[in-house]
Each structure stands twice: as structure tokens, then as C-alpha cells.
Amino acid sequence: MKKGNSVKLLALGVLSFAGLLAGCGTSTSGGGNTSSGNQTSASASSSIPKGITLHVLSYWQPEEMTVIKQLAAKWGKEHGDTVVVEQNSATGSNKFSNWAQMVRAGTGPDVAIAMPSDNLGTFYDEGLLAPATRMNPSDYPASVAEGVKIAGKYYAYPVAAQSVALLYNKKEISSPPTTWNAFVQDANKYGFNFAEHQFYYDYVFLGGMGGYIFKDNNGTLNPNNIGLANSGAVAGFQLLQDMNLKYHWMNSSVSQSVATAQFDNGKVGMFMSGPWDVAAAQKAGIQVGVAPIPTLPNGKPGTPLISNLTAIVSNKSKNIAAAQSLAQYLTNASAELQYFKADADLPALKSLQTNSEITNNSIAKGFVDQLNTAVATPNIAQMQAVYSAQAIITSILSGKLSAAAGAKQFVSNIKQAIAVQQG
Predict the structure, then answer these.
(1) What is the model's pTM?
(2) pLDDT tens figures, 342-364
(3) Domains of the chain by range and CATH?
(4) Which of 3, 5, 113, 213 is the most buried (most CB within 10 A)?
(5) For residue 318, with 0-12 CB atoms within 10 Å meaning exposed, 13-18 middle and 19 or more buried, which class applies?
(6) pLDDT digits (tens, 9 = 90+) for 301-342
């Protein structure tokens, strides 16, 4: 998967909402959960009329677009319908928000695919999402399914899931560390870095040490209960600060581009990032290995945030039953395996994470193994406030603020951002 694609945009957090082009779509919602892996046939259903036209907007790259068009054409042929697939052309702050604008105006697509799941809460609040009536949550790892669940219902079909993991230079490190003590020894000897000023990456340590973003009350996130200044989060911030001031692995000015360049140039032997940075390192001559992040000082695993890409159905579609069937078809096991072969998109379905196509690929297997401890990125609209308040992290890393004082200020800034967000 290429650096700069929609998965990387999700990894950088809720920087904008979601956007797509064109279309309309069938009536009423489509029926019930399906067999394992969402692998229902593309054969016609009595609830789906013939002769309609559905519109799909894709946020993926050309490699996936080829697959999507083939699958959409097959679904359309077997249902007697037409599917028009278009590539999203919006950029910057409109990259995702144009989808919402079009749906509000009644001109949006019936289905969007490769939509980052952290946009779902905003769309849900506006009533733009149809529940994913054909999505079977038991087909996915719990943390993947939770990423598309809002107020007790599922509103998207996961199609790809990934998180950051430990990238290491196999020329220097033959066996990756699995414990914190071993990790410290390797980091002291070979170097370690990542984009430490970004909350998305930092949550590996904040959550792993016992912090949380929003309290989860039986599947409903409470934005008024923020756990980023509790004792666990403070310990996590202290650990991040120690990486700079105690271990001297990096400093607070290390950006993602700097961290990437240092790993690609062989200046550091370990780097925390995602699949989007593997190809460039390999092109630079690095023998890249991927492994789960070692256990932390408390003996517990790190907690990377899962980046879900999803297919969603517009609640304004004129053909919701058909759109549900199409969205499910574009995200079933066969489809996800084709996306992986096309551009290394890691599948979201549990059934595929033990597929030989995945397990025989050491890079893919390393990232899939990391998903075992990864957690769902909150998909409620208030998550935007967390990212907008993250600038304070630099002051913690540099020692300008203590871990406790910085964490307290961070939470205060988040609450202020939420208040502004809510008007």
C-alpha cells in the first residue's frame, strides 16, 4: 500500500471528514447478517429490483480501483443492474467532507469504499449513514467491529484494517525484541524513532500503560469521560518523555518525514510506523522486518489504534437494499483477498488473517500479528478534538511540562475543543 493513500490519511487521525462523488441508488434496507466472511453470492435477491443504477465512490488507489470495477460489474450483471464506479478527486480539507455535502444535497453516491472509520461519528450525527444491515460483527476481530459501531449498531463494512507496528532493519537486528528490557538494549545500540509528537502514534504507549481516550460504556463512548490524564496515561507520557531526555533516542522535533528518512537511510535500526512506509524503506535497500511492539515496562502490550477502511451506504440512497448488497459484496472475503494482492491492503476479516496468502508474507503477517493488541480508534465526532489538542504533546516530550502537568493540560485542551466543536 502506497504512502499517502487513504489508510495513511486515517492513520494521521481525524483531520477532516469524508467525501465522495456522484449517484443515487434501491428501496428499504437489505436483509440480516450473512455467512462467515460476508461471502454471500452475487446472485439476484428478490429485494433488489432490476434495471437500477448504483453509484460507488472510491478513496482507494488505481490498483484497487481495477478490482472494484471488476467486482461491481459482476454484481451488476448478476442482479441485472448497472454500477458506476468513480475515483474520489477531492483533496485537502475537502477530501472527505465533499461526500457529506453531496449526500446532504441528494446527489451523493449510494456506496463509498475505503472510507476511514473515524469519520463515521460525524456522518452518524447528521443522519447520513444507513446501518450496515448485512454486516456480521462476529466475522471480524472485536476491535475491528467496534470501530464501526455507534450507539449499539454497526454502520459500515470493514474492508481493510491495520495499525502501526515495529519496523526493524534485519541486517542489524536478526530477532526483534519482545520485552521492554530487550527493546531498550536494542534501541540504545541501533536507535529507535517515530513521529512522537503525533497522538496517533503515542497512544501505543498511553493506552498500553493504562490510559484511555473516551470511556466505553457497553459500546457507547462517553466524550465527557476522558482518560488521558489518569495514572496510566501519565506513566505513558513519562515513558515518551524518557525516550527523549533519558534514553536520548530522539527529540521532540522529530517529524514523521524525519523519522522515516532516518530509518530509510540506516541511521536507526527500529522505527514505529505502518505499512505505508515499508515500500520506501525497501526501495532504499533496507531489509525490513515487521513485528509487534514489545511489551511495555508494566509487562502489558502496547495499544496501537486500528485504522479501519470501510464501505458505507448513504441513508439518502433511493436504493438502500441494493446498496447494502453491493457494499457487502465489495467487502467479502474474496474481494478483500483481491485488494491485498492488488496493493497489500491488510484484510479486516478474521478468516483471511490466517490465509496462506497473508501468513506467507512476513511483512503482512507482522502487521496482522500486531492487530491482536490494537484497539479501535474512537469513531465519534469528538475524536477530532483530541487531534486538534495534540500540540501540547511537544511540550511534554521536551520536558517543558512534566508528564502529569502536560497530561492534565492536554485533557483540558480537549474539553475546550469539544466545547467549541459543539458550539
Answers:
(1) 0.87
(2) 999 999 999 999 999 999 999 99
(3) 6-162+306-372 (3.40.190.10), 165-305+379-421 (3.40.190.10)
(4) 113
(5) middle
(6) 999 999 899 999 999 999 999 999 999 999 999 999 999 999
